[in-house]
Amino acid sequence: MKSIIQPARAPSIWRAARLLSEGQLVGVPTETVYGLAANAWDAAAVSRVFAVKGRPACNPLIVHLASLDRLADAVALPLPPAQQRWLDPIADLFPGPLTVVLPRNRRIPDVVTAARDTVAVRVPAHPVMHRLLRVCPFPLAAPSANKSACVSPTTAEHVAESLGFSLELILDGGACAWGLESTIVSLAPPQPRVLRPGSVAAELLAERWGLAVDLLCDPRPHAAAPSLEAPGMMALHYAPSTPLQLGPPAGAVPEGQRVGRIAFQRLPAAETAAYAALELLSQTGDLSEVAHGLFAALRRLDRLGLDRIVCDTCETTGLGRAIMDRLRRAAADSQPPAQGEK
Ligand code: TXA
Ligand code: MG
Q1: 0.90 cut: is pTM over it?
Q2: Ligand 1 pocket mutation, candidates 49, 61, 63, 237, criterion most atoms within 8 A of CB
C-alpha cells in the first residue's frame, strides 16, 4: 500500500495543490507545527477540517499566505491607518512564526473565521509550505493537524497517527524547526495585543512598538473588545492523556509508580534512576531546543501507559513564555486537588 506520507518534492507538492483545489485536505509542514490545510475560499473543504479535527465551530482558523503581498486574498484593504501603523514595524518578521489578526474581507467564508469580522493571517517560512502556497491560486486555512485539544504535531508521522485515516496525502518536510505554534497578535485598537504567545518573543514585538511587554501580554479580557481573545485558548489544550505535573518533583517517586520525566537540562545520575522514562530536551537548558522537542517528547511518553509525567519549568520570558503557556494548558486537568479539597 502506498504511504500517505510523501517526501515533499515538486511532484508531491503539485499533487497537494491539485487535491486542495478539488476540496480535499492535506497535511503540510510549517516551521512551527504541521497543519491540516484546506482551500480557505472553499467553505465545504474548510467545514471538513472542523469535522476531521472534532473542532468546535466557534474556534476560527488561521489563513496562510505566500507573502504579505497577497494580504488582499483574506484581509479587507486598505487597512485602517492605525492598524497599518502597527503592522509596518513588524512587516519584516514575515515570513515567520507570527500571525496577525486583521479585518477580514468577504472572499473568506464565515466558517473560517467563525463569523467574526476579523481574520488571522500568517506567512509561513517553511520552504515546502511556501512553495505550496506559491502554486495554489488560493490561500490555505490550516489549523494544527491534531485532534482538537490534543498535542500539536511536529513530524509527518505525528499527523498520520492523529488524522491519517481521513487524509490522502501528508507532505513530509522533516521535523518542525520551532516546534511551538506561531505567536498571534491582534492589531485592533486601542493597541496591539498578544493573543497567544509563540515562537516570536513578545519582548521583540514590544520593542518594535515601543510598548511595555506586560501591557502587550495582559491576560485579562480586552477592556475595549472582550471578543478579541483567541477562542482556541481555553484552559485545557495541547494535553496528553497521562496526568502532567509541572516540576520540580516534590520528593522521591513513590514505590510502584511509573513516572516519566521531561528534563530541560542534564540531570544528576542519581535522580534519573527513579524514572521509568526520561526525555532530555537539551543538555544545557537551551529553550529553542526545549521548544523544538517538547511536543514529540509528550507524545512519546504518553504512549507508555505511565502513571504520571513530571516536566521541568522555565522562566516566562522570551520563548519561555510560550513553553510555559503550553505546559500550563497541558497540565490544567492534572493538578492535584488543593489542600482541603476532595
Ligand atoms: O503555528 C501555527 O499558528 C499553526 C500552523 C499550522 O500555522 N496553526 C495553528 O492553528 O496553531 P490552530 O488552529 O491550532 O490555532 C489557531 C488559533 C486559535 O487559538 C484560534 O482561536 C486563533 O488562532 N484565531 C484564529 N482566527 C482568529 C481571529 N479572527 N481572532 C482571534 N483569534 C483567532
Ligand atoms: Mg491547534
Answers
A1: yes
A2: 61
